[in-house]
Each structure stands twice: as C-alpha cells, then as structure tokens.
Amino acid sequence: MRVVFMGTPDFSVPTLQAMIDHHDVIAVVTQPDKPKGRGKQMVFSPVKEKALEYQIPVYQPVKAREPEFVQILKELNPDVIVVVAFGQILSKEILEIPKYGCINGHASILPMYRGAGPIQWVVINGETETGITTMKMDEGLDTGDMIEITRIPIDAKETGGSLFDKLKDLSGTLMISTLEKLENGTAVFTPQGDGKTCYAPMLNKKMGNIDFTKSAKEIECLIRGLNPWPSAYTKWNGKSLKIWDADVENRNADDEPGTIIDVTKTAIVVQTGDGALALKEIQLAGKKRVKTDAFLLGYKVHVGEKLGE
User: Fold this and answer.
1) Which of 282, 218, 214, 212 has the alpha carbon at shortest distance from 244?
2) Helical pair 46-53 and 13-22, crossing angle rounded to 10 deg
3) What is the pTM of this model?
4) Model confidence pLDDT, tens digit, residues 53-89
5) Is the peptide bond before 230 cis (omega within 30 degrees of 0)?
6) Is the Cβ–Cβ distance between 224 and 200 less than 8 Å?
7) Which residues are CB-neighbours of 292 under 8 A, at least 6 positions away?
8) Looking at the predicted structure, is the pLDDT value of residue 34 above 90?
C-alpha cells in the first residue's frame, strides 16, 4: 500500500519502521522542529530522523488542516494515512483523502483512555490491563470505529516508561495486521458507542506534587505512572525530593499524613491517608537518583519529620 505516515515522538518510530518494512511509505508528516537546550538548537523529531535515514520526503506543517498542505496530501494520493502520536487533529477533508481512510494506533483499549496521556494514566489509576487499539479516525478525539485490539497485562511494578516501551513495539505489529485486513476486505469496524470512557489528559509537572492525604496505593501508582517524566516529588527540609520507587505497607500510625514514622536500613516509611509508604529510591534536588539505603549513608533522616513542608 502507498502509505503516508504521521507521527512525532519515539513512540511512533517502531510503527513507521514496520510501515517501511512492509509497505511503500511515500511521505512522512511530523511536527515542526523545536529548539532545545540552553543553546536553543533546532532538534528533529524522532520520526523525522527515521524518515531521513530512508530518504523519505518529510513534511512539517504548523497546521495540517491548512489548504496548502491538504492539497499536497491530495497530490500524494495515498492508499492510507497511518497516524501514531502525531499531535494534531486532522480535518474532515484530510480524513476523506485516502482510499482506506486514516488509521490511528492508540495506546489504550478504547473507548477507555482517550486523549494524549493513556500510557501513564492507566498506571496512575491502578489498571491491570491495557493495550493498543487501531481505529479508523473520525472528526472526534479518539472516537473512530475500532478495527483491532491487542491487550497486555500491567505488571505490579510497571512504570510509565516501561509500559511505553512495551506498547510502542506492539503498535507496529498490530498496524501491519490491520492494514492487511483493510487491503483484503476482512477488517471489521466496531463503533465505540456511548459506553464507559474516560479522558487521559496530557501530563504536567504539577501533577507530581504528592498529596500524602491520599492512600499509600494511590500515591504508589502515581509514582510509577509519572516515572520517568514528569516524576513524583515532595519536599524534605525545604528541598525538592523526587520519589522514584516505593512500596505500600499495610500499617498505620496516629501521625498526620506525610510524617516519617520509621527509618529502616533500606527505606524511609511515611504515613499516608491510608497505609504507609516505604520510599525505596529517591533523589534530592541537585543530587543523583539513588536507592534509599545509599541515601541514608549520607543524610540523617528522623522519625517525626514531615515531608511536603
């Protein structure tokens, strides 16, 4: 099939590679280059880097719905447009260009977790299963008819980062299957309907500020979901303290949430709104990320101190 691929971040790259390996990728569309770092040097998106590796033409419209770019797509005349984490809403005019439509690989089991942050939110919300859904895009946000779903369990210690890596590889494999079904006429389109759904908004740094009045389980899920970015954090002795790993302990003290109730050789144990949280891997502002046992060799932490102040 003649494929136009639309995507931007690391997550999109395995699917682009799968399209290159199995189809004729005639063009790649990605977000404009952005300045990065202190020097503000312009940086290519991971998808652009992969496309250039194969000398595939790259287009970077500020807004894909602009008439000039829509005309370019019409002239390319693709059989299908494959979209994975592109970062822009496509207009009805674009959706109607390809013979087989615009097919999106979305990182959740739709209709749950529509939106920009499905990978992290399933961890934050304590889900036990997630996956990839391919769908024929419509004008809504992740509301198109579903074609195929592949499911995987969420491990007890899954992080946003580890789940990201698993799903990005699954996306390419599922997209190959979906395009094959489209081409041979065996694809089944299932409307998402009006059943249970939820929105998975984009992450931001403020989300990481730990509220110790919540349960230990809720906080532990937040820590894993926001690992590696934007990360969960609190304050200790006036300094920012990132929490990278923690275990839920089924015990409660009479102390206020956020109070350190125990310090062992390997953990700092904090009271929460329900249960205790044993901090196992932390990072003080300006310092390296370390296991708590190593941290305690250099810093004195006392029972009764309160985090978050």
Assistant:
1) 282
2) 20
3) 0.94
4) 999 999 999 999 999 999 999 999 999 999 999 999 9
5) yes
6) no
7) 266, 267, 268, 279, 280, 281, 282
8) no
